[in-house]
Amino acid sequence: MQPELPFSGLFVLELASVLAGPSVGQFFAELGAEVVKIENTATQGDVTRKWKAATEDPDTDISAYFSCANWGKKSVALDLKNPEGLAVVYRLVQKADIVIASYKPGDAEKLQVDYETLSGINPKLLYGSITGYGPEVARAGYDAVIQAESGLMYLNGQPDGEPTKMPVAFVDLLAAHQLKEGLLTALYMRERTGKGTLVQISLLDAALTSLANQGTNYLVAGLNPQRTGSEHPNIVPYGTIFKTSDQKQLILAIGDDRQFQHLCEVLGAPELASNPLFNRNNARVKNRIVLNEKLKELIAGFNQAELLAELERRFVPAGAVKDVQEALSGKAAQELKLQAKKNGKLLVGMKTVAFKLQNLPNAELLPPPHFGENTVEVLENHLVK
């Protein structure tokens, strides 16, 4: 008998849009939960349905952006400002295990779908809330703005260039991971106590805690980090990009002196590893400009594929710089792709669950729903006695 998915039988209501909250919803759906996405009739649903690339079908409401975080869900169209719509949500809350919400502070209270209200209906409810700056700041949170205000954007880019926003809404994704961790912790607590709880994360908090070593470079060492391109402030050569003889790029990630010694041997310059200017990491950090110029000259004499193969053989961390098409064409990406036919069209996407769990069965996920596609089905299944 095939084992059940971990969250089989779990009922999740998603009162969230865009990326952070919906990513959490898809996570639970991929692992077996029934996830019902409540979409606003006044806006024709999640705003990302309309966020389309120039090459997309203008007539579909399932955009590529919407597809990145809404597999496995059922869409119910409701107007929460209408008493009848709100009553439907309340009846669904009675059966729900988790609510995922992403409202600007104060808005959930105005709509009467805040934690205090919903936990009064279902005391065992777990309520996961994402805000921009925390529950006390009535300011909407946007990934690009948080990247700027958290220091992440300032650190990203070339030393002589402008601060650069990261090309993916990483703060949204970081907040999603934090909320997942909080909800999983809350699920464990509920198993022990039988009580529901409120789980909160702000985009700003998620971004600040993700400064990691750059943050402690300032807090511990008093160093205010600056832009270094793709290079690492504490390790050299790490993140440095070089070009090979066939005009292709590769990146090095040398984490210790032994790896640096092997790199120099592969490049035919073992003397670099014994040079006092480069033989220890702290020396390489101080002399990174000189070292990078020497490595640039050496690497330019090698073919990319041949050099990477030899570096791998010697356990030297390195890799080719690939574009998205190349990355998603690789073997590893194939196991993470989702695909299903809907109305005769093939829809594709990516999993949010990348970890491997022993004996975890494969889930048959529903493709992303059209706006309100499952309204009648959900209401009949959950509300009709």
TrEMBL record:
InterPro entries: CoA-transferase_III_domain (IPR050483), CoA-Trfase_fam_III (IPR003673), CoA-Trfase_III_dom3_sf (IPR044855), CoA-Trfase_III_dom_1_sf (IPR023606)
Keyword terms, alphabetized: Transferase
Record's keyword annotation contains NAD: no
Single GO MF descriptor: CoA-transferase activity
UniProt key word Nucleotidyltransferase: no
Pfam family, one: CoA_transf_3
Protein name: CoA transferase
Organism of provenance: Adhaeribacter soli
